[in-house]
Amino acid sequence: MGNNLRRSDIIPTGVTVIAVACAVAIAAHLLLRFAADARPAIANLPLLGAMLLGGAPLIYDLIRKFIRREFGSDLLGGISILTSLWLGEYLAGAIIVLMLAGGAALESYALRSA
Questions:
Q1: Which long-range contacts (CB under 8 A, 24 or more apart) does 33-42 make?
Q2: Which pLDDT belongs to residue 1?
Q3: Residue 6 has what pLDDT?
Q4: Which pLDDT does position 4 carry in this prediction?
């Protein structure tokens, strides 16, 4: 019996990497904040990194869709990311990045599996 795995099945997509990195950043924040009792400014650094590095490609894609007048629920997520960054609510923003990237990763996986 042969192995039916293709190389494209095991290489993660960009959104998968963003989703995993964001989940790791949220876990690091929670560990720093509650287990290590770090100051909020220090504990928020992983979240800020996840929002900036992970949210930037998502926001860029949303801006492209907005220009083409392709409106969807992702646009609301992008507005929420920018608002949470502006208000300093980094955990909420990182969760939104995880939600958008995780949804896109699941959609990508479903399309590859079909």
A1: none
A2: 47
A3: 55
A4: 58
Q: Which of 26, 42, 23, 3 is nearest to 91 (CA)?
A: 26
Q: How long is the chain?
A: 114
* Calpha distance 87→82 (Å, rounded): 9
Cα–Cα distance, 83 to 104 (Å, whole number): 21
Q: Which helix (H) or strand (E) holds 72?
A: none
Q: Residue 31: what pLDDT?
A: 96
Low-confidence ranges of the chain (pLDDT < 70): 1-12
Amino acid, res. 50:
A
Cα(99)–Cα(33) distance, rounded to whole angstroms? 22
Distance CA 114, CA 104 (A): 15
Confirm if 75 and 59 have CB atoms less than 8 A apart. Answer: no
